Structures are given as C-alpha cells and as structure tokens.
Amino acid sequence: MVRVPTARRPAARRNVAPVSPPSNGAVLINPILRHMDLSTKIRSLRTKESTKKQYLSKATIFKKWVDLNHPYLMETVADLPWISNVNDHPEILEDFFGHICQKRTDDDSYYDPPRFQSYHHVNGYKSAILDLYRQSKVKPNDDIDDMLMETMAGYKRLVAELKQNGEMSMKEGKSPLSFEGYRFIAKTAISQPRDFMLGSFAWIFLLLCWNLMARCNSVGGIMYDHIGWEQDAMYVVFPTHKGDQEGDNSNPKHVYANPNNPEICPILALAVYIWTIGYRRDDSRRTLFGERKDAESRFSSWLRNALGENSNDLLVMGILIVEIGTHSFRKGIASFLACLTGGPTAIAIYLRAGWSLGAVQSRYIVESGNGDQLCGRAATGNCTMNTSFAVLPPHFDQSNGNILTVEEWEGILPGYRSFYPVTFRKVCPFLLASIVYHMDWLKDNFPIDHPLFISRLWTSGILERLKSSVHTGNVSNPVTKLCATGVPEYVQLSHDIYSVRNRVAELEVNLGGKIDELPEKLKSTMLDNFQVNGAVPITFNQVQGMLNDLKNTLTTALSTAVANQHNSNASNHLTNNSDVQCTLWTWKGRLHPVPEGFRFPKCTTKAVWDLWWDGLPVERIKPLRHLKSFDLSRADGNNMSKARKVLKALTGELTDEDVSALSISDRDNLFQDRYLQLFRKMYPDQSEDHHDRRRIGDLTYMTVYDLMSSSMNN
After folding, report:
1. 54, 80, 558, 700: which could join 84 in a potential S-S bond, CB 3.0 to 4.6 Å?
2. Which residues have a Cβ under 8 Å from the Cβ of 321 and sit 6 or more positions away?
3. Domain co-membership, 99 together with 213
4. Alpha helix (H) ranges present in 310-447?
5. What one-character-per-residue DSSP string does 200-232 give?
6. Nearest to residue 456, comparing CAs of 563, 567, 570, 562?
7. What residues does 230 pair with on adjacent strands?
8. CA dihedral angle for residue 320, residue 323, residue 326, residue 329, rounded to 10 degrees
9. Percentage of the chain surpassing pLDDT 70?
C-alpha cells in the first residue's frame, strides 16, 4: 500500500474584503492584518533562539545524511516539503538513529566494537526532527510517532545496560564540583595576578552560580531590578529560566552572607564588584554583568584558563579539569546540599534548582520561603551542626534612620539615585557594612594595586567612620534586633545550650577569682581604715589606680579629637570637595607629593577621573593632577601622560580650576556626558546601546587612549 504524504492543512482565515489602493499611491495597510507581524513574533517565542539553533544544526545533519544515503527522498512532489517523503519510509529514520547513536573515529568510521552516544545526545535529534516537521507544516504519521517513541525507550534501556556492564561512563556531561574545589576556585579568582576587573567579575559570578544553584545563562542575565533584601538575606528573582519559560514559579532565591569565610561570601563579593566596576550610564540597561552572552563567554573563558593554570593542585583534590565546566557548579551545590546532615529536603533542593516535579508540583506542592532560606543558608558553606550556621550578616543599626544621607551615598556610589532601582538600594547598606567589616581581610588578601583601594569609597575615609557602627552576631543581635532566618530549631537549641555553658564557666571563674582575692582585699580594707596620728596612708595600688584613670582620660580625649578631625575631613571630601592636608615625602634628595615607589594606578577611566581631582585623602596624597614626571618611574610617567591626554579630551575647554570647583555630583554628571560624547565622536555610526554592550564604562584609561589614537589615525 502506497502512503500518501500528509501535509498540515493551513488554518482557515477570515475572509477579508479587498481594499482599494489610495489614489495618491501611498501604501494602505489592511486594518484587519495590521497586527500579524507582532503575532508572528509572539508565536516564534514558543522556542528560544538558542534551542532553535541547536535544532537547526541537528536538522542540517539529518538532511545531509538523507541526501547522501537516500537522495531520492529529497525530491519534492506537488510542492510538498521533502520531509513529507519520510512519512512513506519510517525505516529511513530507524537507519538514521542507528547511525547517529554510534560514536565515530576521526576518519568518520565506526568503532569496533561500537561505542554509543549518551541518551540525551540522541534524544536531541528526535526533538530536532519533530521540529523540522513542525516548521515544514507536515504532520508525522502514526508509524513515525510510534517508531520514535519505541526507539528512544529502547535506547534508554540500552544505555542503562551498558552502564551496568561498565561499557559506558556512569556520568553524562560535566562532573559536579566538590565544595573543596569550589572554595579553591573562589580563592583563585581573588588572587588574580592581573586584570583585577576580570577577577572581581569571576569571583561574584561563580559564587552566584553556586549559591543560587543556577545555570550560567541565568546568572548572566541578572538585572539590578531582580535583586533585593529581606530581613537578613539578599534575594534574587529569575523571571524565567530553562525549566520555567513562562515564569509561573519565579519565586525569590535567598542568598546569605558568610562573614566567617570571606572568600566564599557572596555579599562581600558583590560589594567588591559594585565598587570596582566602571560607571554605568543612567539610561543604560540595568544588567549586573552586561550582555548575557558576553558574561557567559567571559566567565567560561576565565574558568578554562584558571583550571588550566591550577590543574596539578586540582588533581590532588581528585578533580580532573576536563570534567569541570560552568554547569559543574550547579551540579556540585545540589550534591553538596543533598549530603548535608540536617540540611534541606530533596523537595526544597529541587524547587530551588528549578527542576520539574511534574504535575505534582503545581497541584500539591507550593514553594515556601522557609525551605529556600534553609537551602540558601546552607549553600554559603556554614556548618549545619554548629551555632555559627545562624550567623548574621554585617549590618548597621538603622532604627534611628539611614546610616548615610542620599548625598553621601551618591558621593561613594555614583548613580545611586538615577541608575540603581529602589529594590537594589535596600541591598546597598549591607554591601557597605560587609566592606567595612572585612577591611583588614581585604588588605591582607587583595593585591595592593587592586582597584577597590583607589575607589572613592575607600579613599574618602568613610569606612573608618563607620567601623564602630557595624554589628553582627549569631541567631539574633540585641542592639539591631535582627534575627536569623532559615535556621532549623536544633540550631537554636544548640545556641541556647552553648550560652548556658558559657555562663556557667564564667561563673566558676568569677567565684574562683573572688575566693583568691579575699585575703588581699581584707588586708587592703584594714590598711585603708588604719590611721596614724589622724593621717590616712595611701597604698601603692591606690596610686597606680589614679595614674591609670588619668591615662584613660587622656587617651579617650585624644581619640575623640582625632576621630572628629577624621570625620570632618571625610565629610569635606564628600561634600565640599576641599583638598585635605597632604603630606610631602623626601626621597632622592627632594620633596615629593607621593611616597617612594608609588605606582600610578592602572584603573578604569572613571576611577582615574576621581583620583585626578580628589587624590587619595586617606593616604594624604594630593590630587594626581599635581604630580610631575620626576615623582614617578618612567613606566608610570607614561601612564600618567596617557591619563592626562584622555582627561583633557573629556574636559575640553574647561580648565582644571573649573572642574575642581564643581561638586562631586556635578563632576560625575560632567564625566558621564563628556565620556559618551567622546565615544560618539570616535564612533559616530554606533548607537548608545552598542556602547553599553561594549561596557565602555569598564574600559581603562590606557585602552581609551589607544582607541583615541586609532581613531585619529583613521
């Protein structure tokens, strides 16, 4: 029996009355059809672009194979697509799957004995072929449907048998990353020897991949609008992801601080990233990492290089770099949480990862915040069997108002009002508190020329002012009243028992000390009340106590005076822009405004702009525009010359006195306008969106100088 190719019948369309063209020759659009283009675009969103590319690649392979082995099927009959001919020959599809499931050598021959591809690899071709039918508007007949279903079901069992017999690897894709390996890679990002901007980006990116249990693609698309703060945790919302294309389950994912292990603390990593990246244009898209594809590519490239440079160290940990990829973080955190004693349930882990639970999820299981909070707190690496599991993030007491004014925020974080959304502004105080709390750790673990140390936040002196205002603690803080969330009951009980034990130990020490001091106190009391001829003798301890009181009084007064002067200098720097008192250093027989060995910073254009007009007040170094060539080495002198030319291109007709007289906010606005004008002048054919995709705000002044030179030569 000859089968007749079945083509999908086109949908019946509404009869449309013909529309006569206007007499003036203008094009007249039928009002009934004016929305068809938009509707077509909406229909095309059913499948993501990345999936379409994968389908197209596999469909092309299938088409070439048919053309090579069964060319007669490529002939079209009665204007029907060639794929309709396959309906008459389902055995052709069986032959193709027998071909595609086997691995081949470099000369395209099959292995003997055969080696088989993974199930997901072969199943991808099934999806691509069905999509080819759909795109060609041809319906596969029942024989084709049955053959595909039976083939894939049988192949799944074949793969299971091969794994059982040891003839096929147990794992498909990349291996999960262990917690030890995750921590090592995080330390690698911190100690990035060059390109500190890339290191800061990689640090927060990999920590978010781990803590959010998210795909690299999802993390790369995070926007500032998706980030907020709730109680003691930051949260991130993914409007859509691979497992939820329609956004039906876009619940917040909680991210917690880990002040006990700063190298894997996502709050600290985000704070460092925010204060080291370049400026963001007010009208640009509020993406955290720039364009999604660019962020994925940057992180993947960095990870590949980092693994290659540390392959021996990772091998000692039992990690093969060929088995590690960007997806290893997602697999690793899922395995890590599932193995924790007293950790989150499997359902909570599945929901956080966005894995489907079938119809059960929508009918019977509703995601609650407590389960995700426990997942988020455990993902930070705090021990679930210790009271430190309930650690609070570094934070300020904001019960009496904000810790900083809006003007001060704008001074240390340009764009605070105009660029960052309200939800993210709630996160900023906790980011700032984390920087303040970890100041000493940052100095000890970051390279001395890290861009954080020349940021306006660090050089303004505001960190020292806020140092005494930072709070933390376990379970709860009695001053700020902040309580830990996502903590199991047994941790609270453990904390209470630990507190009682400490109080008993303190009581024992105090009682023992009181008993030991009793004879001496009895002696002192008798001497203090013993008089000779009406005179009261003064003991040595009394004289020593008076001297100590005098010393404490003087120390307190001096500390208060120094703190007031320091706060005054920091306030002047953020408001009035007046030069603080600067120090002169003597070396090589002359006075210099910088210490010997000072390196001219290699930083973003915005950072050198701030240093050019403000200097480094904390280190009492005057604005860098006052430096001379003999104050620097030859290489640093060349960098200063490049910076001077770039900044001159930005200031244009304005003099140094004109710019230095501006307030910080006005100077930031001037930089943003002139910087964009400079790129418009160099690249008149490129749009502002294109400049944002290039992340021109992150470019160093050396790169901008090279671009200026190249533009002038062209």
Report:
1. 80
2. 307, 308, 311, 314
3. no
4. 311-316, 328-338, 346-353, 359-363, 369-379, 406-412, 422-425, 428-437, 439-445
5. HHHHHHHHHHHHTT--HHHHHT-BGGGEEEETT
6. 570
7. 233
8. -70
9. 84
- Give pLDDT tens digits for 262-299: 999 999 999 999 999 888 888 888 899 988 888 999 99
Number of continuous H segments (helices) and E segments (strands) in the chain: 29, 7
142 lies in the same domain as 211: no
pLDDT 10s digits, 150-161: 999 999 999 899
Cβ neighbour number for residue 155 with a 10 Å cutoff? 19
Q: Which residues contact 600 (CB under 8 A, 6 or more apart)?
A: 624, 627, 632, 636, 637, 639, 640, 643
Same domain for 615 and 682: yes
211: closest CA among 193, 227, 191?
227
Amino acid, single-letter form, for residue 180: E
User: Whole-angstrom Cα distance, residue 710 to residue 155?
Assistant: 58
Q: Which position has the token pair 């160290």? A: 313
Is the predicted pLDDT of residue 661 greater than 60, yes or no? yes
Does residue 510 fall inside a structural domain? Answer: no
For residue 590, give the DSSP letter.
E
Which runs of consecutive H residues, i.e. helices, occur in 446-539? 456-459, 462-466, 489-528
> 6 falls in which pLDDT band (50, 70, 90)?
very low
Q: How many CB atoms lie within 10 A of CB 520?
A: 10
Residue ending a domain, choose from 134, 164, 194: 164
Angle at alpha carbon of residue 584, lines to 582 and 589, rounded to 5°: 170
Taking only the tens place, the pLDDT of each residue in 671-698 is 999 999 999 999 988 888 888 888 888 8
Q: With beta carbons less than 8 A apart as the criterion, state whether 270 and 435 touch.
A: no
pLDDT at residue 17 tops 50: no
Question: Hey, how many other C-beta atoms are within 10 angstroms of the C-beta on 688?
Answer: 14
What integer pLDDT is reported at residue 80 of this predicted model?
A: 72
Residue 670 lies in a domain: yes
CA distance 648 to 625: 11
Q: Name the band, by pLDDT with cuts 50, 70 and 90, for residue 515.
A: confident
Residue 94: CATH number of its domain: 1.10.150
3-class secondary structure, 700: strand
| Whether residue 315 is found in the same domain as residue 430 | yes
Model confidence, pTM: 0.75
Count other C-beta atoms under 10 Å from residue 79's C-beta.
6
For residues 596 and 462, membership in a common domain is answered with no
Residue 190 sits in the same domain as residue 128: no
One DSSP character per residue, 132-184 reads: HHHHTTB---HHHHHHHHHHHHHHHHHHHHHHHTTSS-S--SSPPPPHHHHHH
Q: Taking residues 514-519, report their average pLDDT.
A: 74
Do 138 and 204 lie in one domain? The reply is no
Q: For residue 585, give the H/E element and its range.
A: strand 585-587
- pLDDT interval class at 371 (50, 70, 90): confident
Cβ–Cβ under 8 Å, residues 325 and 207: no
In contact, 249 and 241? CB cutoff 8 Å? no
What confidence tens digit (pLDDT) does each residue in 457-502 have?
998 889 999 998 999 998 889 999 999 998 887 777 776 777 777 7
Summary mean pLDDT of the chain: 83
Q: Compute φ and ψ for 78, nearest 5 degrees.
A: 55, 40
Q: How many domains does the chain divide into?
A: 3
| CATH number for position 406 | 1.10.443.10
In a domain, 306, yes or no: yes
Residues 318 and 380 in one domain: yes
Range of the domain at 328: 179-471
CA atoms of 457 and 464, how far apart (whole Å): 11
Closest by alpha carbon to 125, among 52, 229, 55? 55
- Please report whether residue 301 resides in a domain: yes
**Residue spans of alpha helices (H) in 585-663:** 605-614, 634-651, 656-660
Q: What is the pLDDT of residues 221-230, one digit of tens each?
A: 999 999 999 9
The DSSP H or E segment spanning 587 is strand 585-587
